Amino acid sequence: MSQAPVRVSPLIKFGRWSLLLVGIAYGAAHQSRLSKKEEKVREIEAQQKAVRDAKLAEEKKRSAEAEARALAELSKPTPKN
Fold first, then answer.
1. pLDDT tens per residue, range 23-43
2. 32-40: long-range contacts (C-beta < 8 A, 24 or more apart)?
3. Where is this protein primarily located (predicted)?
4. Phi, psi of 80 (to 5 degrees)
5. How far apart are CA 47 and CA 54, in angstroms?
6. Mean pLDDT, to the nearest integer, of 58-77?
7. The model's pTM
8. Any idea what DSSP says for residue 76?
């Protein structure tokens, strides 16, 4: 019941293998290009992270000082009349 496999033309085989190899080469080149682009983005983000962390530390310090002043004012004894 099984039929014999169909012979595929050598031209079609060559075309299939050629397109496969071209696709692999294109994918490798595209991946390389995207990797370089992403590396640059990561460097920029690393620089921005340092600045952002410094700002957050300063803001946290100011917040802690303001909270300490507020607690100090709340803990002052009130004069009784």
1. 999 999 999 999 999 999 999
2. none
3. mitochondrion
4. -95, 140
5. 11
6. 91
7. 0.54
8. S
Q: How wide is the angle at C-alpha 36 spanned by C-alphas 55 and 23, nearest 5°?
A: 145
The gap from C-alpha 25 to its chain's centroid, in whole angstroms, comes to 25
- Six-digit token pair at 36? 């370089």
Question: Strand, helix or coil at 42?
Answer: helix
Query: Position 68: which residue type?
Result: A
Token duo for residue 16: 């299939």
- For residue 10, the one-letter residue type is P
Q: What are the tokens at 38?
A: 């992403």
> How far apart, in Å, do the first and last CA atoms of the chain sit?
111
Structure tokens at 62: 């100011």
